[in-house]
Amino acid sequence: MPALKVIIFGANGAVGKAAALEAHRKGASVTLALRDVFKTIAGLPDLPRVKADLTDPSSLREAIRTSGATAAFVYTMNDMEPAFEALKESGVDYVVLLSSWTIYPNDVEKAATSHAIPARHAKAEIALKASGLKYSAIRARYFASNVVFESAAVKKGQVDVLNPDGVNDYIAPEDIGTVSGAKLFSEPEIVPIIGARLLTEREAWRIIANELDCPIKINELDYDEFVNRKGISLAIGTAYPDEIKYPLKLRPVGLENVRKYAGRDPMTFEEWVKIHRKEFLS
Ligand SMILES: NC(=O)c1ccc[n+]([C@@H]2O[C@H](COP(=O)([O-])OP(=O)(O)OC[C@H]3O[C@@H](n4cnc5c(N)ncnc54)[C@H](OP(=O)(O)O)[C@@H]3O)[C@@H](O)[C@H]2O)c1
């Protein structure tokens, strides 16, 4: 049987790269679609590259024509209707979209009118459904890599936190990408996924401090201060009670989906921090 031809948009991103690796490992003929085809991508084999931008439909048509791909991994962008139309017209029949767990409890229409993070991803899912393409939506909530945005604060030994005793799942982008790459080979579905363990922000920063062997003090901000510094959407998502963020029924489903598609348990936050420790120091 000829190899499945897949195209990975954003193949130099943390999730895109892992999706490309998994699709390659599973035997697909993989094309890497990049805005800059000359970018060095450490850890990927030498695979064909095409230049493409998800906000430029003509570049998508050209990328699909060159690659002959019928399945595509895409990141969520704003206003994706023209992108999905271009992919479909050019011969793609199945899309795996990186979406968000915040579209809970599975109410896409309601999420589309919510605040920025769920709304953006829900609108992309709605556009994908309307396109008539077959699709899977990989819904992840809180990437482990979010902590690296605080690396300047880590160097100063103090991080600003709202709700330090609230939990996050700290899923590894590598796991999200592996599930996404595997999903290119299987039936369309909505796939909520979750990290190995829910950790409070306090616990997460303690893990980072231990790994970096440096003290990190928690500076608890009030809601308005946090909104001023980080934006309203992140504040709303952070302030939700744990059982709203992570509905009890959905937690085992998210874990099982990682095991099913990645073929292993999700990476723990401790493992992820160890692998990425240099990113806090650069
Ligand atoms: N952080 C969270 O907790 C969270 C939760 C749920 C979902 N998400 C989603 O995850 C995404 C981040 O994933 P990541 O960690 O893999 O990010 P990343 O490492 O920063 O990679 C993002 C990738 O998207 C590519 N990209 C950006 N704009 C593009 C465009 N117009 N056309 C084609 N490619 C484009 C980038 O390419 P260039 O190198 O050319 O810029 C890069 O390859 C967020 O954007 C969000 O949608 C995040």
Automatic annotation (TrEMBL):
Source organism: Gomphillus americanus
InterPro entries the UniProt entry points to: Ergot_Alk_Oxidoreductase, NAD(P)-bd_dom, NAD(P)-bd_dom_sf
Residue ranges constituting the NAD(P)-binding domain according to the UniProt record: 10-145
Pfam family name, one: NAD_binding_10
SUPFAM superfamilies noted in UniProt: NAD(P)-binding Rossmann-fold domains
Name used for this protein in its record: NAD(P)-binding domain-containing protein
